[in-house]
């Protein structure tokens, strides 16, 4: 409604991270999500493979 676009950061415990992503997708389908977590190697790989078109509208 207010036409405000991110990026936004939601910090959540790893145990509920995927649940948060599912809820965002369900209630805000136009908002793109990227669960970003893991050890150093996993995060490095994730950063290398991020497709910016998936993140921003």
TrEMBL record:
Domain SNF2 N-terminal: 2-47
Compartments, as annotated in UniProt: Nucleus
InterPro entries: INO80/SWR1_helicase, P-loop_NTPase, SNF2-like_sf, SNF2_N
The keyword Nucleotide-binding is assigned to this record: yes
Main location group: nucleus
GO MF annotation, one: DNA binding
Any one GO BP annotation for this protein: DNA repair
Keywords, alphabetical: ATP-binding, DNA damage, DNA repair, DNA-binding, Hydrolase, Nucleotide-binding
E.C. code: 3.6.4.-
Catalyzed reactions per annotation: ATP + H2O = ADP + phosphate + H(+)
Highest taxon above the source species: Eukaryota
Entry's Gene Ontology cellular component terms: Ino80 complex
Entry's free-text remark on domains: The DBINO region is involved in binding to DNA.
Quaternary data: Component of the INO80 chromatin-remodeling complex.
Protein family according to the UniProt entry: Belongs to the SNF2/RAD54 helicase family.
Role according to the record: ATPase component of the INO80 complex which remodels chromatin by shifting nucleosomes and is involved in DNA repair.
Protein name: Chromatin-remodeling ATPase INO80
Natural source organism: Nymphaea colorata (pocket water lily)
